[in-house]
Amino acid sequence: MKKGIPIVISAPSGCGKDTILEQLFKINDNLVYSVSATTRAPREGEIDGESYYFHTRDSFEKMIADNEVLEYTEYCGNYYGTPKKAVEDMLSAGKDVILKIEVEGAMNVKRIFPDSVLIFILPPSMGELERRLKKRGTESDETIAARIKQARTELDCADKFDYLVVNGELMKAVEDVNKIILSEKMSAKRNIALLEEVKNS
Ligand code: 5GP
Question: Which residues of 160-198 are buried (b: 16+ CB within 10 A; e: fewer)?
């Protein structure tokens, strides 16, 4: 069985990566989502085992010690990490695995899986990002300013990704991400066995 591709999606807060992924899963049935582990508290509506696996610091550190996380980082005072076995099993089953992680984790995934595909979602402009964050109406001006600052730091790493997708119009961004995945699946370097098969047929 041909192994699946690890696909990393990173984006600053407010760029709409959750909405893009929600739509992407509707149009590509070979995708599966890697549920991360975290020590941050669940937000309203988040379900353990679906949004994240929620852990105490002690149990997260035990997972690290037991080599059960593929990569992990500390972000805003909390641990976030990718459970190793689940990702390896899904890739072996031929599924393309979506990892929704921040930029440092993305770089680590590329080191672990050189064949992974790193996609960075951009806002159409910094002004639009600020407007979107304000529209949510859930955060103070101070928090919004901190998120914009964080976004700029993350954008500084975006040139190390394989692809940049602008989320201006939602469905266009969804299609762009899907096209990247479909093209990668047809790339020559991923299809050497197919080439040999055809040559020998
Ligand atoms: P949030 O608390 O908003 O759900 O996530 C905060 C940040 O952590 C987001 O950028 C999210 O993509 C990132 N993140 C979530 N899971 C993981 C993970 O397993 N590994 C890494 N490196 N980052 C993660």
Answer: ebebebebeeeeebbebbbebbeebeeeeeeeeeeeeee
Per-residue tokens: 112: 């672990």
Is residue 187 assigned to a domain? yes
> Within a domain: residue 162?
yes
Instruction: Show the ligand 1 pocket: residues with CB < 6 angstroms.
Output: 36, 40, 71, 73, 75, 80-82, 100-102, 105
Instruction: Identify the pLDDT of residue 34.
Output: 98
pLDDT-derived band at 140 (thresholds 50, 70, 90) equals confident
Q: What total of structural domains would you count in the chain?
A: 1
H/E stretch holding 37: strand 37-38
Q: Which range marks the domain in which residue 14 is found?
A: 6-34+95-199
CATH code of the domain containing 176:
3.40.50.300
Pocket test for ligand 1, best of 39, 85, 102, 157 (most atoms within 8 A of CB): 102
Q: Percent of the chain scored above 90 by pLDDT?
A: 92
